[in-house]
Amino acid sequence: MNILYDERLDGPLPQVNKAELLKDLQRALPDLDVLWREDELKPYECDGLSAYRTTPMLVALPRRLEQVQTLLKLCHQKNVPVVARGAGTGLSGGALPLEQGLLLVMARFNNILHIDPAARTARVQPGVRNLAISQAAAPFGLYYAPDPSSQIACSIGGNVAENAGGVHCLKYGLTVHNLLKIEVLTIEGERLTLGSDALDSAGFDLLALFTGSEGLLGIITEVTVKLLPKPQVAKVLLASFDSVEKAGRAVAEIIAAGIIPGGLEMMDNLAIRAAEDFIHAGYPVDAEAILLCELDGVEADVHDDCQRVREVMTEAGATEVRQARDEAERVRFWAGRKNAFPAIGRLSPDYYCMDGTIPRRELPGVLQGIARLSEEYGLRVANVFHAGDGNMHPLILFDANQPGELHRAEALGGKILELCVQVGGSITGEHGVGREKINQMCAQFNNDELSLFHAVKAAFDPQGLLNPGKNIPTLHRCAEFGAMHIHAGQLPFPELERF
Amino acid sequence: MNILYDERLDGPLPQVNKAELLKDLQRALPDLDVLWREDELKPYECDGLSAYRTTPMLVALPRRLEQVQTLLKLCHQKNVPVVARGAGTGLSGGALPLEQGLLLVMARFNNILHIDPAARTARVQPGVRNLAISQAAAPFGLYYAPDPSSQIACSIGGNVAENAGGVHCLKYGLTVHNLLKIEVLTIEGERLTLGSDALDSAGFDLLALFTGSEGLLGIITEVTVKLLPKPQVAKVLLASFDSVEKAGRAVAEIIAAGIIPGGLEMMDNLAIRAAEDFIHAGYPVDAEAILLCELDGVEADVHDDCQRVREVMTEAGATEVRQARDEAERVRFWAGRKNAFPAIGRLSPDYYCMDGTIPRRELPGVLQGIARLSEEYGLRVANVFHAGDGNMHPLILFDANQPGELHRAEALGGKILELCVQVGGSITGEHGVGREKINQMCAQFNNDELSLFHAVKAAFDPQGLLNPGKNIPTLHRCAEFGAMHIHAGQLPFPELERF
């Protein structure tokens, strides 16, 4: 799908000789598994954003830290670009490989090293799956809070690299809020510890800087996360609305009432019907929008909050508010939401999932704006998202076999993200920038800000070998892409009024 | 007190001609208030760490952003070091001025620009006092959570620069966890926006990097903070113990029980007696240690938590657990804690307040270690601290008029911080590194890590003009200081066993 992506705008990459690199690797690390045959490389040509595909030059599958260290030193010395990959579930093409580079797969580092129930921490290797941490912590009544939809498969190293979120991040924060310490290797093979076992650490906050840096600053080799006690009770309310604007207002009013739900999700009519057809969750198919609001904590507290949320929703115009009667119904309500993406996949040959974040107060206006853009571009858009934190996931439906639709879908996606920037939001909530949103970074940041990103990148990786062409665009790209930096509140797009 | 501090170890600073700089400033900014007479400069020669004093060359007191911008451009062009200062309440000498530099006082930027009750945010100028934000938010039932002891006086710009904490940061986080967005000026006078009004932002997390960077990366000109709804109820328990180890264990067990108190503070016998003599808070003067545990939230929840905390404390060996009977007693219990520093000031001509953070499980051992060091150095140490988050504030009592005591106090302080590093902790919890702990940074970080800090610093300020000699030591300093980097768990200090 990368019609709008022109990789020449990222500047020249070093030329690497495949046979020579393979020989060097085999000599330096005779016991390292390296894939080099075309058929072996195939499974690694994309991550979760399957529209973008590139065959990597070589794939390395190390098992030991020393292997990674030697490999990085070699690549640094020979000027070979390196792309790190965890489970490959990312949705912005952050782990998209390079034809002229090595793909470093960290999936085999999958040991849980230590669970400390008293300190409520888990020290794990980067290839450990997100859900596996919670499973290992469960016997102590603890869990790891961030829960991306891919949590069965995605790895914690990738979660850190992308600063992953999930349906509970309104209350429990993104990955960065749930980390204590990471161990990383620089491109020169130096081992660094960022953060500490204590709650604060001295010097610059490189742990936060590294989190969400999408593989541009170094390779994550160990992660210490915070664990939380499992809430005693969780209850879910399902509210129906006859307009998305009313549902949007209800979201703002729940938060303004001082309630912080464990999860607060919105779906519009297209998404509701798709999910209901697929999962039979019991959703009201005539509603223009529904809200799912989970309240968790101790029994009495949850009971009170349910009452208050019910009142706020009703005042905001909910036509019906239902509380899941039992655990089975609660799980069914969530199953509809969690399977909304594949459900929509059944409506259309292709879909394209966006990930913009906006201030909550802008929800109704941005939803209107998306509807207008949808009409203008002649493509349906379903809205399913983390309403509580203003993290939208518009899903653009298209058919890649229809001439021009692919191109239109990508252009529409770009416009939606630029709309998010325009109202003071961000082009990414939890999926990262990767390759996908590299052009929109030019709308989000001005040249001074981008230059600063490049200077910070150069502090870690002066040769630019780590994941080039992702996350931070070159100034050349932004000049060619032609998008001016959008100041929030300005109106660079004449077709979009201020709502 | 800076006997152990030798500023020659920070490398040469540019030589600045005072008369020339004054003339340049007056020409470029005729309406800028600049102080230059010896008697006018006097009040600015130190911050809250009054043991370190230097007379600034000039003090600038701008009122408008453009003035700051022009001033920075001029200093950048003329190679003049700049130290920023908010309210000057910092405890690590971060705002200590330079004889060869300009002190930039941001105190006059003291307007609250916007309170948004629906989004629960406040946009303020950097000179606004911490408490003034909560006061402005109070009519909406909201407040700003981080509450350093100096909250009546300290400014939000300084809070961001130092990543300030407070008695409630166990539950509500440090400053970095309560920020959405900041506006800054680089040393070149460029305006940057870091963070966004949305919950996540794209690119590297420069907002977190900037928070706690102690004036080394740029000048904060605007701050958007998150506001929280005021808890319905707050109750305080006061528990007495016959040993500090038992109190330390109780802390670990409260947290392990899955309870997150609003505040969880410990005081040892010396601190208890000092506070009781001064404030008459009703503390048990015979106890070896007390814990103050505040539980906040909705009524029913707080009631349950009080019961559970009481049980846990009793099991951990509390000899008595009292709940404040009414709001007046609750306030009195806290008044003792909040005035513990001045109370100890009455016991001794001088005291030196440390700020180390350790993993909670190390509390009993580190308290023993401090007791042994106290004996070895022949100086009394009182312990008053944020026990819940392992943030210790040992207070070293000494008399600067007794030959050698000043020197011994500083040396003892350094040893206590190195002990914190040794058990996996940090040399700062919430006060920052500043000038005070610059030597201990050599114990906390290895040369690779320090080099990375320098590279990041250079990305923002290649000439090193912003607050030189603070926060990040030169490699030369670390080599001369002679302290090797301490890996947590190693035993570089033969006089300290592993507890």
TrEMBL record, chains A, B:
<dbReference type="InterPro" id="IPR016167">
    <property type="entry name" value="FAD-bd_PCMH_sub1"/>
</dbReference>
<dbReference type="GO" id="GO:0019154">
    <property type="term" value="F:glycolate dehydrogenase activity"/>
</dbReference>
<keyword id="KW-0285">Flavoprotein</keyword>
<dbReference type="Pfam" id="PF02913">
    <property type="entry name" value="FAD-oxidase_C"/>
</dbReference>
<dbReference type="Pfam" id="PF01565">
    <property type="entry name" value="FAD_binding_4"/>
</dbReference>
<dbReference type="InterPro" id="IPR004490">
    <property type="entry name" value="GlcD"/>
</dbReference>
<feature type="domain" description="FAD-binding PCMH-type">
    <location>
        <begin position="52"/>
        <end position="230"/>
    </location>
</feature>
<keyword id="KW-0274">FAD</keyword>
<dbReference type="InterPro" id="IPR016164">
    <property type="entry name" value="FAD-linked_Oxase-like_C"/>
</dbReference>
<protein>
    <submittedName>
        <fullName>Glycolate oxidase subunit GlcD</fullName>
        <ecNumber>1.1.99.14</ecNumber>
    </submittedName>
</protein>
<dbReference type="InterPro" id="IPR051914">
    <property type="entry name" value="FAD-linked_OxidoTrans_Type4"/>
</dbReference>
<dbReference type="InterPro" id="IPR016166">
    <property type="entry name" value="FAD-bd_PCMH"/>
</dbReference>
<dbReference type="InterPro" id="IPR016169">
    <property type="entry name" value="FAD-bd_PCMH_sub2"/>
</dbReference>
<keyword id="KW-0560">Oxidoreductase</keyword>
<dbReference type="InterPro" id="IPR036318">
    <property type="entry name" value="FAD-bd_PCMH-like_sf"/>
</dbReference>
<dbReference type="InterPro" id="IPR006094">
    <property type="entry name" value="Oxid_FAD_bind_N"/>
</dbReference>
<dbReference type="InterPro" id="IPR016171">
    <property type="entry name" value="Vanillyl_alc_oxidase_C-sub2"/>
</dbReference>
<dbReference type="InterPro" id="IPR004113">
    <property type="entry name" value="FAD-bd_oxidored_4_C"/>
</dbReference>
